Amino acid sequence: MMVICPECSTRYVMGASALGPAGRKVRCASCGHVWHQVPDESIHDDAHLDPIPESIRPIPEGSSVPSYMDHGEGEATGGRNFVPYLVNYGFALVLFFVILLGLYTQRHAVVRMWEPMALFYERIGHPVPVAGSGLVFDRVNAVTSVKNGRTLLNIDGYILNLTSETVAIPRVRAVVRDHTGRVVHTTRIAMDRDFLEAEKTMTFHANYEIPTEDNADYMVTVSFVD
């Protein structure tokens, strides 16, 4: 006899004798709905039918094993639909490649935001030059003075070329912070040359007016920028 799930209309085939005279509970393998199925009264004798395979017998009371599904309707065994899983995996794969493409095409911006990524790009064969690579600051000194009610910041120091090649000198930025870490002034330090020869040293000096604050302690950091 044909058994149809009242919830999702999935069809199952089983012998009426398997249900017994009073019927029994069955579970839909597609949607999980459980209902009480009675045998078809129009079927009086199904003794002529072949024995019912175990795989299509109704589930025992209290069992969680799904019933057999009619594959003639094109449904998967057990009622599982794998299409959503394939879609999710496909989307994740596309997203992964999009991220990789972004990391490659925007590698210069990535290195500017996080300099250690330069080592990653170098190892995969696509090195990204880092601003001031091979150059280091040395003996940087910053002193404030007050003149005519104005606070002046004097910065001087050295730049060393540690490489065996001439290196272009990028822009140099000075950031002034107060004792709380708050940025109170940012400025560019002008260099008197564009290149520094191999293993050579140059000096730099700059002075700027910064906001006047009573009893303020300042911290100055200098860095190369693109």
How would you describe the overall organization of this protein?
The chain is α+β, with helices and mostly antiparallel strands. About 15% of the residues lie in helices and about 35% in strands. It has a 3-stranded antiparallel beta sheet with strand order 5-6-11, with no helix packed on it. The radius of gyration is 39 Å and the shape is elongated. Residues about 70-80 have low confidence and may be disordered.
Which key phrases capture this entry?
3 domains; 3 helices; three-stranded antiparallel sheet
Report the portion of residues in β strands.
25-35%
Order of helices and strands: EEEEHHHEEEEEEEE
CATH-assigned homologous superfamily of the largest domain:
Immunoglobulins
Give the overall form.
Answer: elongated
- Considering DSSP H and I runs of 4 or more, what fraction of the residues is helical? 10-25%
CATH topology of the largest domain: Immunoglobulin-like
Order of adjacent strands in the largest pleated sheet: 5-6-11
Oligomeric state, counting identical vs distinct chains = single chain
SS content category: alpha+beta
Number of helices: 3
Question: What's the total number of strands?
Answer: 12
Unreliable residue stretches? 68-78
Mean pLDDT comes to 79
Q: Can you tell me the CATH architecture of the largest domain? A: Sandwich
Distance between the termini: 79 Å
CATH class of the largest domain: Mainly Beta
Task: Please give a quick description of this structure.
The protein has 3 helices and 12 strands; from the N terminus they run ββββαααββββββββ. The chain has 226 residues and is an alpha+beta fold.
